[in-house]
Amino acid sequence: MTYAHGLGGGSDLPIPANFAILGGTAALVVSFAVLLLAWRRSVLEDGTRRALVPERFAAVLDGAAFAITLRVLGLLVFGYTAYAAVLGPDLLSNPTFGVFYVWLWVGIVPASLLFGRFYRAISPARTLHLVVARLTGSDPGRGVLELPRWVGYWPAAVGLFAFVWLELVYPLSTYLGPVRLWFVIYLAAMLVGGALFGDRWLERADPFEVYSTLLAHLSVWGRDEQGRLVVTSPLRNLTRIEPAPGLVATVAVLLGSTAWDSYRESPTWVRFSQTISQPTLVDTGMLLGFAVLVGAVFTLATGFLPREVEDRRLVPRRMAHSVVPIVVGYMVAHYLTFFVEVGQRTLAQMSDPMVTGANLFGTADLQINYWLSEHPTFLATVKVLAIVLGHVVGVIAAHDRALRLLPARLHVTGQLGLLAVMVLYTFGGLYLLFGA
């Protein structure tokens, strides 16, 4: 079994590459032109068009019993996976790899889009932090120190980069030792940080929780100012992402790492990588370079505005929420087949954590459904649409926010830089999709 999850070359996608790239780029430009003509004032942040979840239903979802059930389930899955990771054989048929690289990293996308702050509800780090706080008689929401505001999302950006480095660069990423070590360091950082800064540390530093929470803002589930559960438009929900420091870096790592994952399996890079003597060092530089490039281009496009724009240095982070739909589009395009097919295989492996032929949950003999791979035209269409729709939604979110931040005379010219970036992202994403 292999965990190479690239998209493959253009021959795998039976859609003319030129048609898809030019068509997708044109769709984005046309969408932007329509927005300029028809969307003249900011409407997504008025906070009025949302519906309270019925009290009885909300009482169940916000109740202690439901929260405890989710925490216990999350802890059981974590404990079972840890059991396989520590005592199981160091083979790719060990379910640890599938849980870590597929169910967690890729599965967090559909789970968060459907259910909201999914990882926060099941997080083993948050549950263990709560248990430690209860045992020591401390308040889990408060630490001995207050987390400085300037910290923002920077710890999560670092954590996300550490994960994608392990997955995409480290040559021993499919051995249990590095995976165990990564997760031990992750848990230690979360528990120590939680003891020092309380729950706020987990909200800002846990890479999986931050990732899930960003994606959850594209779900229909949200909270009003009083903390009550509401149903709202994903576009309106998206505007509620807090523009804290490090937000641009966080979305840049997510988008840049996916782009690098596509490019590293292109024929051009494969041929070049066979000629270098330090591939790990070069790959690390390329991964970092892709993330920095995404963040720098976005910052340049949104940050250079006239002095009359209030707090113009903060504009990039205030616009960074518009990148989240693009991240979702890239994740769907890049990982769809990988998630569906290897995810099924992981479910089968969960019944046999020690690889002894056991069938603990009755899934060991599960037959993998390869329907997606067997219908390449449908698959290619879904991938192209995911990238294009992600960018269109991103343009809508960015345009609405720009109308609020920019003076009237800059409503058109002030967005041209952002349009150029979105076109570049669309062109680059589709180009990489077809095998670079």
From TrEMBL:
Say yes or no: keyword Transferase present. no
UniProtKB keywords: Membrane, Transmembrane, Transmembrane helix
Task: Tell me which species this is from.
Answer: Nocardioides nanhaiensis
Query: Where does the chain cross the membrane?
Result: 20-39, 59-80, 100-119, 151-173, 179-198, 280-301, 322-340, 378-398, 410-434
* Name of the protein described by the UniProt record: Fenitrothion hydrolase
